[in-house]
């Protein structure tokens, strides 16, 4: 075998690293509205960079279930601050997989200042509870990226005051 052939074979046999969270979001057809929102809010770069993140990723159906016209209004330039807050509420600066969750409710600080969500393991899956008591089912968990993990959820998390799950959490 020639050196050139050996080099080509090694390149084919060497596993490539996973995509970034931003690339995973952009590549998933179920998350096209999230990708558009992250771009509009200027947050795509946040989940593309090196670091350790968890993204709780609402599907297009989750965004479609919002009050009619709300998603489109959030994309408007004059509402960028509100959109950014909403999306930062779906991001955590550490990696949390379903395996990491204890068998109880835990509080998780999001990238939105002083705003928490709660996570609860349920069987083999988990739910995410927002500040208003809304529960998002994780429909696909632990999608690995080179800079974190993504959990696909079935509703948009809404920030607010102290999560109603605080009493249940550690």
UniProtKB/TrEMBL annotation:
<dbReference type="InterPro" id="IPR000782">
    <property type="entry name" value="FAS1_domain"/>
</dbReference>
<dbReference type="Pfam" id="PF02469">
    <property type="entry name" value="Fasciclin"/>
</dbReference>
<protein>
    <submittedName>
        <fullName>Putative surface protein with fasciclin (FAS1) repeats</fullName>
    </submittedName>
</protein>
<dbReference type="InterPro" id="IPR036378">
    <property type="entry name" value="FAS1_dom_sf"/>
</dbReference>
<dbReference type="InterPro" id="IPR050904">
    <property type="entry name" value="Adhesion/Biosynth-related"/>
</dbReference>
<feature type="domain" description="FAS1">
    <location>
        <begin position="18"/>
        <end position="157"/>
    </location>
</feature>
């Amino acid at each position: 075998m020639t050196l050139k052939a050996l080099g080509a074979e090694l390149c084919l046999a060497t596993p490539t690293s996973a995509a970034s969270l931003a690339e995973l979001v952009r590549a998933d057809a179920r998350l096209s509205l999230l990708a558009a929102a992250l771009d509009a809010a200027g947050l795509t770069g946040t989940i593309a960079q090196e670091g350790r993140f968890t993204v709780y990723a609402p599907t297009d159906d989750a965004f479609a279930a919002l009050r009619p016209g709300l998603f489109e209004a959030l994309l408007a330039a004059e509402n960028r601050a509100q959109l950014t807050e909403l999306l930062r509420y779906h991001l955590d600066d550490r990696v949390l997989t379903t395996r990491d969750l204890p068998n109880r409710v835990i509080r998780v600080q999001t990238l939105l200042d002083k705003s928490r969500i709660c996570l609860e393991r349920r069987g083999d899956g988990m739910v995410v509870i927002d500040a208003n008591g809304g529960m998002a089912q994780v429909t696909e968990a632990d999608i690995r990226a080179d800079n974190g993990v993504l959990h696909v959820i079935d509703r948009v998390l809404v920030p607010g005051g102290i999560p109603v799950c605080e009493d249940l959490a550690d």
